[in-house]
């Protein structure tokens, strides 16, 4: 993997997750009522997921693994290759599901779920970034 490119994406990911952390209210009910916080959190979560997918795509290409057919499959490929923890890969696949809902407006966003993602799983993005940096050349 191109280390400079991965470092740039990891820094963007760090900024997104910091913004989410800073702007997400401590209670889900408050997030459900605060449209400004909703916008900031949703946009930055979407960006964070996309950055992880981009990093995964570079990682897959550099590893010579077959290209995934879907965004979520990218994380499964890395887990199947033994370079990414399977549990982390599964959680990131779930984050892709959120991204698809947010971007394509398949249905109304459940702010309780978003709040749970932020307060229980935001660290998954950092864990993925650390693994990617560890494998970058």
UniProtKB/TrEMBL annotation:
Keywords carried by this UniProt record: Hydrolase, Nuclease, Toxin-antitoxin system
Pfam families the record matches: HepT-like
CC annotations in GO: toxin-antitoxin complex
One GO molecular-function entry: RNA nuclease activity
Protein family: Belongs to the HepT RNase toxin family.
Protein name as annotated: DUF86 domain-containing protein
Organism of this sequence: Metallibacterium scheffleri
